[in-house]
Design brief:
Blueprint (H helix, E strand, L loop, with lengths): L8 H9 E5 L2 E5 L2 E5 L4 H10 L9 E4 L19 H17 L2 E3 L9 H7 L8 E4 L13 E4 L2 H10 L1 E4 L3 E8 L8 H12 L7 E6 L1 H4 L3 H9 L8 E3 L4 H7 L9 H11 L11 E6 L6 E3 L7 E3 L13 H14 L14 E4 L7 H11 L9 E4 L4 H9 L2 H7 L3 E2 L20 E4 L14 E4 L2 H10 L10
Parallel strand pairs: 3-4, 3-6, 4-5, 6-7, 9-10, 9-12, 10-11, 15-16, 15-18, 16-17, 18-19
Antiparallel strand pairs: 1-2, 2-8, 13-14
Length: 472
């Protein structure tokens, strides 16, 4: 009997979903298709025009998140002021009803950000192939699932066929040795890695995260890390499932039950890279080198430690990198050699599919308990789902946050993407727990500094970029 060659986790999931190969591409079966209101209307319109049905409506879940306001959600789409946003939200309700797809609409306590709701419902499971018309679908790789974003035409293809055509990526392994220091979080690790390899450092690859520090991360922290894989240029990020994964999924609404759970555990436990599997690239990180990190520029790799200084573009050897740094400093109104700590803030945003889960809110509450947001700062917290909001309120976290002066909102993408009413004004400087700090991303002319929830909370109290313990 011929022994199969050793394979990576990515290769195992890919092979298990391969339907056919054709001209360098593979037709892959999709286990879970997540939908939202922005990238689905044209796809549903294409189906209707062609007279096609949805192939497997039971393998889809729809959420309203990008366009939703973070106040007054009980009124539903009819209460949304922006005409285009309201039309997209109403279209999702109509289309999911027409095609028989489960939808958690505005105001449903199970609703919220698609990459928060999928995991908390137990829909995201090890070994799955998951797609969504959103780049941060890589979040679900935290469960040992191969998850990636797709375009609108591909959304239509998946709806119609439950398959997608893709080219195989290369394998990249990021090993994080040792243990993260106290008060250093998964967001810091991701930003540290971005600073080390750059926004194109994982281009053409799927990353598998491994090592002692990765195994010690909670599921919520793993989701944060995998979420930011796309910012490194990766197609997806993966973490092999383990006892932490199984503990998170147990009892979730869509998770297997009884004998099916036992069978699933056996399958999931085999989802690891073989010891002799070959990776095209290995990156090794010492967890002890990771510090609390803050971005200074206009892409997530333009980052320094909280006690660092803003770099001088003149010291950068690559002309393209130097020009990008010069443009970023001009946009951010910063100068080389300035300390990142102490930069005055106008706004603080805690939320997004990167950092809006209950663990994130607990961290924030621990930092701000007994303190007040600086008088000149407007600070808002947007839970990732209605269930996260309910849990936080059951634990009394909302009272701590309100007493500190935070605006406690309803779930949605909010200021992360600026497709709703939550936006920065020109020139405003914001500490944000989201995933992108591009020019105009959070509002035209807005200046965004990415950081962990702990740093954002401390910065809100200090009124400037600051670490916990320095906010008075």
């Amino acid at each position: 009997m011929t022994r199969s060659p050793p394979r990576t986790l990515y290769e195992k999931i890919w092979d298990a979903h391969a339907v056919a190969d054709d001209d360098g591409e593979t037709l892959l079966y999709i286990d879970l298709h997540l939908l939202h209101e922005v990238t689905s209307p044209q796809a549903f319109a294409g189906l209707a025009a062609a007279g096609r049905a949805v192939r497997r409506p039971d393998r889809a879940l729809a959420l309203s998140d990008h366009n939703v306001p973070t106040v007054g959600q009980a009124t539903g789409p009819a209460g949304v002021a922006d005409v285009e946003a309201r039309a997209q939200l109403e279209a999702l309700v109509d289309n999911t009803r027409r095609f028989g797809i489960e939808n958690f609409p505005m105001g449903d306590p199970r609703g919220g950000i698609v990459h928060v709701v999928g995991p908390e419902q137990g829909r995201s499971q090890p070994g799955m192939m998951i797609v969504c018309g959103d780049s941060h679908t890589s979040t679900h790789g935290a469960f040992g699932a191969l998850a990636f974003g797709i375009g609108t035409s591909e959304v239509e293809h998946v709806l119609a066929t439950q398959t997608i055509r893709q080219r195989r990526s290369r394998n990249m392994r990021v090993i994080v040795d040792g243990a993260l220091a106290p008060h250093v979080h998964a967001k810091d690790l991701a930003l540290h890695l971005l600073g080390a390899i750059g926004v194109d450092g994982a281009g053409g690859h799927v990353i598998e995260y491994a090592g002692e520090a990765i195994g010690a991360l909670s599921m919520e922290a793993r989701m944060t890390l995998c979420n930011l894989s796309i910012e490194m240029g990766a197609r997806a990020g993966l973490i092999a499932p383990d006892a932490t994964t199984f503990g998170y999924l147990a009892g979730r609404p869509a998770a297997p039950k009884g004998a099916e759970w036992d069978a699933a555990m056996l399958r999931w436990s085999a989802l690891t890279s073989d010891a002799e599997a070959r990776f095209d690239r290995d990156v090794r990180i010492d967890a002890r080198d990771v510090r609390p990190m803050v971005t200074w520029g206009t892409n997530p790799s333009q980052v320094v430690a909280i006690d660092g200084t803003i770099p001088d573009p003149a010291t950068l050897a690559n002309a393209e990198t130097r020009a990008a740094a010069e443009r970023a400093l001009a946009y951010m109104d910063l100068a080389p050699g300035e300390t990142i700590a102490g930069q005055l803030l106008d706004r603080v945003f805690i939320g997004s599919c990167t950092n809006s889960r209950i663990e994130d809110l607990r961290i924030v509450a621990d930092v701000v308990r007994g303190h007040r947001v600086a008088p000149h700062v407007r600070a808002m917290i947007v839970p990732g789902s209605g269930l996260v909001k309910r849990q936080a309120e059951a634990e009394g976290l909302d009272l701590i946050l309100r007493d500190a002066g935070f605006d406690w909102r309803e779930p949605g993408c909010s200021m992360c993407v600026g497709m709703n009413a939550d936006r920065l004004q020109p020139g405003e400087r914001c500490a944000a727990t989201s995933n992108r700090n591009f020019e105009n991303r959070q509002g035209r002319g807005g200046r965004t500094h990415l950081m962990s929830p702990a740093l954002a909370a401390a910065s809100a109290i200090a009124g400037c970029i600051a670490a916990p313990g320095t906010s008075g």
